[in-house]
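Reply to dn_fold:

You asked what the input looked like. This is it:
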Amino acid sequence: MLKRIVRKVLPNAAVAAINRWRRRERSYESWSKAAAAAPEYGDKDLTAFRIERSRLIVGQEESYAQPPADLLPAMDVPSGRFVDFGGSAGEMCAVLQKQFPAWSFTVVETKSMADAAKVLRPAISYSDQLPAEFDVFYSSGTLQYLADPEQLWREALSRTTRCAYLARNAFSSKKRFTIQSSRLFDNGAGPLPEGFDNIEIRYPHRTISEASLTEIADQMGFDLAARFEGRNSGLIGTRTDLYGADLLFKRRQPDVVQKTKRKKGRLLRAVFFPRSLRAAAD
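and this is what came back:
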């Protein structure tokens, strides 16, 4: 009854806006249930739009995509291999390529995006799989759209030789699964291509745990070298427990790793084999 009254009183546009807001804020019990309620990221309409919009800025990427200044010191070697996980059509890699021409760049994306983007910037590699090894791993606003971000993070670090940088994160101490809703024209940067309607795009979204990512990094031999607070562009909705921060991790040098292992070994011996027992054993 109340719903019918609201529909009669409010304009259709207002009712549609309320429905979109409710869908955006609704929480689901699991990723699978959120994914079942909306298409996965990589929807064909979104992919086609992003490709055509990116096509319009080829050669002008620096006007629309700027790498974090804090990332650049990680590339202070003559050459290397850079991976942008979730890097869309390679706009940011194109900017970095001009600054670091001796480096190689790979964008890891959905298969549909990777296949379509290859013709735009042939100097950049595109794949739907992580390369076997690389020096710098970068991901911006992507982990929160994965079913298992921690597994991907662990896999990426196992192949990273130097540094890893995570930007535009949706952190929370609470695990939440929602649906993100946006208009098609809100995606990407640059002039709007012709032939598209500004339709609603919906895809599953989740929070990620900063503590878990940091712990995994430590297990994989990385230290948190820098943390940049207040970078909240990866957040959606109005949940007060959400926060953003960019994280820069650096792989420990081999001698540091060995020292850490020896220190942990001494600690374990001290806990499980007190000095009195060790003396008795001798």
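Residues 254-272 form the longest helix (19 residues).
Hope that clears it up.
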